[in-house]
Amino acid sequence: EGDDEDGPVVKLLSVGQPIQGTVKRITEFGAFVDIGVGRDGLVHISELSTTRIAKVNDVLSEGQALTFWIKKLDR
What we know:
The chain is of the alpha+beta class. The protein has a single domain (2-69), classed as CATH 2.40.50.140. It has one helix spanning 2-11; strands at residues 18-26, 30-34, 40-44, 65-69. The longest helix is centred in the N-terminal third of the chain and has 10 residues, at 2-11. The protein is globular.
């Protein structure tokens, strides 16, 4: 059921679009971000900076709100 409800909102998103999000959970490989469409976005550690980052916690913290840009959509 949730997927049906999320569908119309997710369809409004497009690659390259800026979107406000809140860091929900940090992992070794990146961060899951609540982007307000019923699904979380994933930001890979390699996308967090133009320089190499050892730990995601070095640049992000849970609860932090930022603007993210959509690179890829899984519909």
